[in-house]
Write a structure and sequence with these properties.
mainly alpha, 68% helix, 130 residues, AhpD-like, 0% strand
Length: 130
């Protein structure tokens, strides 16, 4: 987990916002709250978190929006990814290594959501909602 989430070429802030977006989309309350807390610890302000959660089409910069949109599609239905999806990330300046990192983050978020939901992890009071 630490190699995918903490290491790599992509900024941790983008990875945490992706984790939040996927967790909300999959309705994993625990992971959503935990990674919102991580976003806050990394200095991401509440308005940016709200944009990720409610108005992703307005998220700036465009590169971050492209990464999170791609990651959401990957988490929802990886078989639906096509050349245009990969080209959108390349146009945003991502390398093949960074694209694989987005795919890995999406898989990690789905895995963590399944683990939290299947084991019934209780919401933690230390995670305050946005």
């Amino acid at each position: 987990m630490s190699n995918v989430l903490v290491g790599g070429a992509l900024p941790r802030t983008i990875k945490e916002m992706l984790f939040v977006a996927i967790s909300q989309d999959r309705k994993c309350r625990y992971c959503e709250a935990a990674h919102i807390a991580c976003c806050r610890m990394l200095g991401i302000d509440a308005s940016t978190i709200n944009v990720v959660l409610q108005h992703l089409d307005r998220l700036e910069p465009e590169t971050t929006r492209a990464i999170i949109s791609f990651g959401l599609k990957c988490a929802r239905n990886p078989q639906s990814l096509d050349n245009a999806d990969f080209e959108s990330l390349r146009r945003a300046g991502l390398t093949n290594t960074e694209i694989v990192e987005v795919i890995s983050m999406s898989g990690l978020a789905v895995y963590a959501n399944i683990m939290a939901d299947a084991t019934g992890v209780a919401d933690d009071d230390m995670f305050q909602t946005v």
